[in-house]
Amino acid sequence: MQKYSTGGAGETRPRRLLLCLDGVPYEVIKAAKSRGLFARFNDAAGLLSPFPTMTNVALAQMLGASVPLGYESLYFNTDSQELCGGIRKYIGRRTPDKVPSSYMDDLDYQEPLPFEFLVYVAPDAVWRADMRRFRDKFRAAPHDRDFFAFLKGTDGLLHIRGPQKLNVALESLDRILNEIQDFCGAETEIVLFSDHGMNLEENRKIHLQTHLRAGGYEVKDRFERGRGKRKVAAPAFGLCGYAAVYCADETDPAEVADALTTLEGVDFSLHREGDSAVVVRGARGAARITREENGSARYSYEQLTGDPLQLAEAQQALRDAGELDARGYAPDAAWYALTAAHTYPDALANLHNSLHAPRVRHTADVLVSCHDGYYYGMSFFSRFVRLAATHGNALRASSTAFLMSTHRQFPAHVRAGEATPFLRG
Ligand SMILES: [Zn+2]
After folding, report:
1. pTM for this structure?
2. Helix, strand or coil for residue 386?
3. Residue 239 and residue 385 in contact, taking contact as beta carbons nearer than 8 Å
4. Into which CATH architecture does domain 4-66+101-199+392-424 fall?
5. Residue 299 C-alpha to ligand 1 middle, in angstroms?
6. SS3 helix, strand, coil % of the chain, rounded to 5?
7. Ligand 1 centroid vs 242 CA: distance in angstroms?
8. What does the pLDDT look like over 208-223, one tens digit per residue?
């Protein structure tokens, strides 16, 4: 297999150190830069992480790699109609069945597999070891090739300890990167980016399974022959601000989505409608997002009741600018320009694609986005973990990762799916 690193380094462009910091939000990097850290980097772009804002979903998009099987290592397999994967993935060697996406084949450095779990138990020790190992490995690498590293320690540090501790880690990373630059000189470009952001507030669990059971649903680990009325599966793993719900054949996703709007902590739920629409339902109302492809993509936001995504103002602005046609459609690019920094960044394309474009192999029937301050996940974890921050929902804090370079200035916002040329080009 050809490593991504051989293409053009030192010939058509400078050698590149591509370094991903798991879970570091755009706002945190912006603040660090304003304190004088990362001074040799140009301004950071907001890198828009796709919903649900989870590592493998995001990196597969950003790096143009193969889509993971599910949103997390515990996932629902829509072919065999049962839960698969889970904690066993974290034990032992990193064998091919534990590689969720092809981007991992290109990594020159990633933490040893047990760290992925230990980071939530001993985050301080793990990030220090992670950074030290990365630095040593980079120093020992051939100097005429790109180097791609993924530091996961930052994600666990934020989840468990919060932003103050992350800032200590960033100071340490800044020193390492300055050292690397002094050593390598201007012939090496450093590109620093993250996969998703985080909300930086204490998070509480949503009681999704209890709520669904109270509403008359059976929550199952497998569907017998795929059939069943009012039967759902909802993989519970990491403590994150989204939930993926799968429905048995005779169970209506629209009804499940509707049942979830009254659950405390749920911002909205999302389900497919036909081949070209999704419906968003939340306490603020319901709306339909429809896409049409006529040379280029156009989206409409149809308020059924209320304004669940708070897009009425943007829609009016498009109408005033003459971008909205008589049927309510406006060009994708026009919506994007107006909403890249919105409460729900790039909501129409992002949410539509979350159910119509394959971001994982086994796409959910209903996706739930929690309010900041709430998560869904495995009870075992939530019993011994106090969650200082999390990600997963479609809100701005989790959806806005960052991207910056010592050599290039990027646009103010970059969509995950359009980041590949900046990262790998
Ligand atoms: Zn995380």
Report:
1. 0.94
2. coil
3. yes
4. 3-Layer(aba) Sandwich (3.40)
5. 31
6. 35, 25, 40
7. 12
8. 999 999 999 999 999 9
